Amino acid sequence: MGKNQFSIRRRKKGMPPLPTPPVDNGEPQNSISMPAGTVKASKKKVGGARLWMRFDRWGQSELNEWDKNAIIKRAGIPTRDLRILGPIFSHSSSILAREKAMVVNLEFIRAIITAEEVLLLDPLRQEVLPFVDQLRQQLPHKILSKVNGTSAEQDDNEGRFPNAGHWLPVPEAVEGLQAELPFEFQVLEIALEVVCTFLDSSVADLERDAYPVLDELAMNVSTKNLEQVRSLKSNLTRLLARVQKVRDEIEHLLDDNEDMAQLYLTRKWIQNQQPETLLGTIVSNCPVPAAPNLRRLNSARSRSGSLVSNHFNYYDVEDLEMLLEAYFMQLEGTRNKILSVREYIDDTEDYVNIQLDNQRNELIQLQLTLTIASFAIAVETLIAGWFGMNIPCTLYHTEGLFWPFVLCLTIGCIMLFLVILGYARWKKLLGS
């Protein structure tokens, strides 16, 4: 029974076909099937279609315009999940597990991840391009190294079966669980890495702009500097909210093992299969010329069964937990940097308020001093007003009395000013 008959049997049983690596023809496998910036022409334009990039586990990628119905049929997700990827929830962060897919909405990355491919929404946006580049560079190398990588010579053929002159893994997905993270977690790791890097760079830019502005405000309190600090605080608040949303979503997953177990799409895909029947079918398709090959196949059968039983514990979420904890700590460090900048802003504001209070106190002291001087001058003016009355007085006819009287009156007012000023300082109403 040939390979085509085996694929027909799998379709009759309702099982999805196994992913097969691309044929090695000497050409790079991670190249896009069409020029960048072009959209694959569809036979019929559908209303509400949006631009998606399909990126499979072997590095092949293409741009398509798909509507909601096409995405729902391809990824097997409910309609409400597409609303999460829409513009209304563009500023939210969520990682949702479904039966056959993972819906990821992290900052600017909005994607649907399955066990075999990634559907990325709006891949030509400026913020999303780094994520696309990382998928092209990292993911194909990881997958191909896992499939084509060789170990020691004595272990190279163990656990494998011959097919058209090639030794293929048995089963390939189970061995992948041993070597590396499943496909969906590799994509999730790249998404978290891009998002965390973007947030870190945003915080670095914020720190680079914040400290000179705050130092300038501490030296010179002006309307321009206050406006710059106000804009800085607004940017800091928005950035802190974005970091907090991603951090809270990861923390929510870490607190619930069942949610993390639902994210193991490859594990669920393999659990839905029948490993023993699958392996028996593969053995029946392969000619067995000699007894050593029989021993190899029996070893492969036992090895496959042990791997499935050992690795398919539903609540074994250690790999995902370690992955999420690493990026949770990175986001926690980013959040602490933002909080440090906010504390520096608060300290600068306190310092500016102290400066303003000090200036306000100096103005109050100056006002009190001027009030005391005004009181002393008012006394002199009062005496001068008394003598300005048209009342007969013998002092009016005394020669040479005017200037000595004015001098004595002025000295008396100055003495009154000094006495009141000394009293105010004694009561600590004025600074020393």
UniProtKB/TrEMBL annotation:
Coiled coil: 229-263
Membrane topology field: Multi-pass membrane protein
InterPro entries for the chain: CorA_TM1_TM2, MgTranspt_CorA/ZnTranspt_ZntB, MRS2-like
Positions of region (Disordered): 1-37
Top-level taxon of origin: Eukaryota
Subcellular location: Membrane
Residue ranges crossing the lipid bilayer per the database entry: 368-389, 401-424
UniProt entry keywords in alphabetical sequence: Coiled coil, Ion transport, Magnesium, Membrane, Transmembrane, Transmembrane helix, Transport
GO cellular component: membrane
Predominant location category: membrane
GO molecular-function term, one example from the UniProt record: magnesium ion transmembrane transporter activity
Family membership noted in the UniProt record: Belongs to the CorA metal ion transporter (MIT) (TC 1.A.35.5) family.
Task performed by this protein: Magnesium transporter that may mediate the influx of magnesium.
Name of the molecule in the record: Magnesium transporter
